[in-house]
Amino acid sequence: MTTIPEEQAPAGSLLTERLELTEMSPADVDALIVGIRCPSWAEDFPQAVDEDAAQQYFQAGLLGPRAGTFGARLIRERGGAAVGTIGFLGPPVDGAVEVTYNVVPSRRGEGYATEALIGLSRFALAQPGVECVTAYTDDANEASMSLLLTAGFMPVESSGPDLAFVLHKETQLPDAEG
Q1: Beta bridge mates, 19
Q2: Residues with Cβ within 8 Å of residue 1, at least 6 apart in sequence
Q3: Could you give the CA distance from residue 178 to residue 53 in angstroms, rounded to a whole number?
Q4: What is the pTM of this model?
């Protein structure tokens, strides 16, 4: 899985092999928060977790140009429907950014979450001030744990109830051609 250079991507987007990670617009966030379906969304998008994430991003001011590099994004099939959300919970703190993600049930098992997570993590690690990408999941979410391990994240000790995973360098990511 490779990330397409930004100069080939639409403004505010990251392109991977099959996906476009587009910055959430204020209209996207409004629709997610108030529950209005957009025609460019997959039939089972959004999920409750996407609506909750939109609310968090809104409250934290992590939307649009103001959010810059570390804002919220929609996961879109190239030229197609929005199938999930991915983004950071803010700019780096002590060199770390925290990523969150979700892909709708109809697209799970196709590698979309892995592709989006690897693409956004590769992008994050290339940003000044970012030394690692972190993610958290609960110990009952085996799919999320498997995804994080597949994407090269390693488990680390956590002070909270959730399991913590960290990606320190791009070389931890799976081989771009493999």
Answers
A1: 77
A2: 16, 17, 114, 115, 118, 119, 174, 176
A3: 31
A4: 0.88
